[in-house]
Amino acid sequence: MSVGPDLHWRYVRACQNVGQPENPFIAHVLQEADKDDKTRWTKGITLKIAGNNRLVPVQRVTDDDLQVLASVLCDTVFVTGLDLRCNVLTDAGAKDVATFLQENSTLRYLNLMLNDIGPSGAELIARALHRNETLVYLRMTGNKIGNKGGMSFASMLQINSTLEKLDLGDCDMGTQCLIAIATALTQNKSLKAINLNRPLLYSQEEETTVHVALMLKTNSSLVELHLCKHEMKNFGVERLCEALYENSSLRYLDLSCNKITRDGVKFLAELLKRNQTLEILDLNANRIEDDGAIYLSEALALNNRTLQALSVVSNNISGKGLVALSDAMKTNVELCYIYIWGNKFDEATCMAFSELIISGRLKPNCTDVEAYEVDGQVQLAELSHGLKKHYYWTPSCGEGTNRDANASLAITAVSEY
């Protein structure tokens, strides 16, 4: 096995051997890796070959490029992470990925989000994970793997006992495979986080939410669950809350971009009064309004001392509800992160949150607003802070792991490799 930083030289040789032109972006990344501090090689490095990198000229990775790169990396023990997001890999590239996963025994993190991998490519990757015993985190976000590809991953979850985080958001999965995944997770004991955002659901019966709730009653390993854009209504929230009374492991629940109203939040508020594990609750882009905010504030002020972060961005809340949430923070010292932008700010709201920030109760990097004064009146401006601001993109300056923009990384350990 390779023991030294000679990745670029090996890549050039491999391209020459098969008559494949070098990809200058891959060559650049490998050169930079070779120059890296040698003490990091013993801990493992992540090669970031993301097609949306704006700091250097990018020639996106093709299937042919990947075939050569995989041959270079197959026996390197120090490359433990590979970021190939936003490239042009197809099912043909997925075949090389699958072969690589079967042969490589050190890769722990693989990011394939926003490529062009379809159902057959997903099936190859999922089958490779039947035998792979090292990969901990896989991101397939945005690849249109459909129901067939989703079913392959559901089957994989019945066999694989190494994977801890699986990201299948925006993959055009349907009702059938969501139910299959939920069923598999009733037995799987290794997966700690799963993203099932934006499936294609054509029923209003919320069957998938019911099956997810049944899974949560028995699953004791899942820490992080994303159910964004599930067309979830108050009935579905009630089913989830019933299950979470029996669950003592889930710490991060993402219910953003659903159809939850004040009646649904009443169930969440009752849950928060008794739940002792939930640390992050994302209700961004629902419609909880003032009554929903007041239900939450009462639970947080009087009972709950576990929740650390709450997002109620764009929920049609006015001053009455927002002031109630700010009052809850005065008595609940555990709630450190709160995100409120996109609601209806009045003078009382601006004063309440300004006082929280000035007094030091709410740190400036723990919320998405900052106070400023115009003609003697306090106003609130938006900050680029949140639970997961850099989920689909990374900033051109700085790292996508910035804790101000991605507070969930600071709270829930499994959120990032």
From TrEMBL:
Organism of derivation: Chionis minor
Please name the gene that encodes this protein: Lrrc34
Pfam families assigned: LRR_6
* InterPro entries found in the cross-reference section: Leu-rich_rpt (IPR001611), LRR-containing_regulator (IPR052201), LRR_dom_sf (IPR032675)
Q: Which UniProt keywords apply?
A: Repeat
Protein name as annotated = LRC34 protein
- Cite the SMART domains for this sequence: LRR_RI (SM00368)
